[in-house]
Structure formats: structure tokens, C-alpha cells
Amino acid sequence: xxxxxxxxxxxxxxxxxxxxxxxxxxxxxxxxxxxxxAGLLDVGALGGxxxxxLTLEPKTGNSGxxxxxxxxxxxxxxxxxxPGIPAFIEKDLPxxxxxxxxxxxxxxxxxxxxxxxxxxxxxLLDMCGVDMVxxxxxxxxxxxxxxxxxxxPETASYVARIVRKALHKPLIVKLSxxxxxxxxxxxxxxxxxxDALSLVNTFxxxxxxxxxxxxxxxxxxxxxxxxxxxxxxxxxxxxxxxxVAVPIIGLGGIACTNDALExxxxxxxxxxxxxxxxANPAAMLEIIGGIATYMEKKGIFCIEDLSIR
Length: 309
Ligand SMILES: Cc1cc2nc3c(=O)[nH]c(=O)nc-3n(C[C@H](O)[C@H](O)[C@H](O)COP(=O)(O)O)c2cc1C
Fold this sequence. Notes:
Elements: H1 3-7, E1 13-15, E2 18-20, E3 24-26, E4 48-50, E5 67-70, E6 73-76, H2 85-100, E7 105-110, H3 115-127, E8 132-136, H4 153-166, E9 171-174, H5 182-191, E10 196-199, E11 203-205, E12 208-209, E13 214-215, E14 222-225, H6 230-243, E15 248-250, H7 257-265, E16 270-273, H8 276-279, H9 283-298
The structure holds flavin mononucleotide (FMN).
Flavin mononucleotide binds at residues 27-30, 52-53, 74, 76, 78, 80, 109, 136, 139, 174, 201-202, 225-226, 229, 251-254, 273-276.
């Protein structure tokens, strides 16, 4: 084997025809629209950025407590606060579009409270400069739409099909770990035209304020993320990697190189990092370097060869 290959493993990955220069993507909701992290890390060095969940109209989000820490986890009840797709395109997209010149892949995370809203949102995103769309049918923090679409294979495939029709760009469907049968939902979404899957979104959970004898969140439940969910997310990625043919993007509690490698070894083609970025904005860059070092050490030349499946 030529010596230079050992020193320079290829950490790029291609998902649905889109080349990522490395397999590490900022997860939706933990990275704003990219611009928010500009002074904290070299955003252009990431493989990709998923925007905060976008809806057609602006949303103010949920009332009351929005974030609550648990041992090894974070609960959130943001409720998809966002400026709406037209404002995103006008005000936020230009920043990340500049970074596309450095190879950054921009993924818009699309949400909606009705099928028509998803379709119209997809049409707008199709016409702007984002590279891919991640369909969020897995948000546990909104009362209409969101996760309600992602728990049942038939409903999930209905939304995915409508969005697929409205969109010419590659479509990732983001799955909910709260679905009774995540494999059935995944298969239905692939049949409806999903080019790739990302999993997992947050786990539905509750917290109670013992002193004040009341629920912590106005919305009753919230979404649990962070290291606490990682082994369960990993198990789901492992199981899906066996049963589906489309690329899988794995996430859930990834905070360091070893965590990311577990997902890549389980068969994910790329990873996303969410909660960890709040505590350590450099986490994703450390992981990118760490994956390359691991591959050099193990004599592995491309990301696909990491999988132990
Ligand atoms: C504060 C916060 C906001 C989030 N907002 C979104 C969102 O808008 N759309 C979405 O698909 N996922 C959203 N998520 C879920 C994350 O993208 C990710 O799926 C989940 O947190 C698990 O990954 P992690 O443990 O690395 O954070 C959010 C997560 C957090 C913590």
C-alpha cells in the first residue's frame, strides 16, 4: 500500500449524490443557522450544517421552560421557534452560502403543522441555495404536525411522498425514536422517495419540579438528547443499517471521536452532533480530526470501510 494513503485517509462521504468533505454535520436545533457559531469555530471546516427546524410561517415557540438538564442529558421544549422559510432565505442563508465555496453542505431542516405546509415549504427550499432537505417528522415538542407525522408508517410515507414531489433536491427523512416500529417507518419513507435517513431525534420525556409540585414544561413533555440517549440511538442505527439500503446519518449523544466512531462502525455513513456543541463548540472539529487519526492508525482508507457490519 503506498505510504501517502496511510497518512491521508479519505474522510469524504457521498450521500444521495452530494459529497461531504468529512462525515460530521451540525445537528438541527443546536447550531442555529450557522452564523451564530461564527466566532466560536471554523464553520466552513464542518462536513455540513443542518439548520434549525424551519416552517413556512415564523413560529414563536413554546411558553415556559425550554431547557432542563438531566444527568447526562438535556431536555428541550423549544417548539420549533424560527423566523419562517422566506426570512431564513433572505437573512440567514447568505452566510452559509458563502461557506459552500469551502465545500460546506447546507441542509435545511423542514417542519410543518400540515401536509400542505410541508409541501409549500419544500417548494421554497427547492428554489433557494440549500443543498439538501432534512424532513423533520420527529419533533416531539409541537402539538400539531412534527412527531405526529413520524410515528406511523402510513402517515410518514404520505408526508414524505408529498415533499418528494415538491422537491428535486436530495431528501433525508429524520426519524423519531418514539415510533413503535422505527424500521417500518423507515421502509415506508424509503418507498416514498427518501434518499437517506437520519436518526434519532429526541426521546419524549417529562420532568417534575418536586419543590413546586408541578411539571417543569408547559407542554407536559419535552425531548431528551445528549449522552443519556446514545446507546439506544446506536442500537437503532445498528438495526436499521441491516435492514435498509439507503445511507444512514447517525446521531444521538455524540460528544467525542469515540462516540462518532461507534455510529460509523455500526453502519452510519455520517454523523450529526447536537447537544455536545453547547458545552464544547469545538467538539465537531475535534471529532473530524479524531476520525482521520483513527483511520490512519487502523490503516482504513475510506469512511465506508469503517463499518463492521
Ligand atoms: C435545543 C434543541 C433543539 C432542537 N431542534 C430541532 C429541530 O428544530 N429540528 C430537528 O429535527 N431536531 C431538533 N433537535 C434534535 C437534534 O437535532 C438531535 O436529533 C437530538 O438532539 C439528538 O442528538 P444530540 O444528542 O447530539 O443532541 C433539537 C435538539 C435540541 C437539543
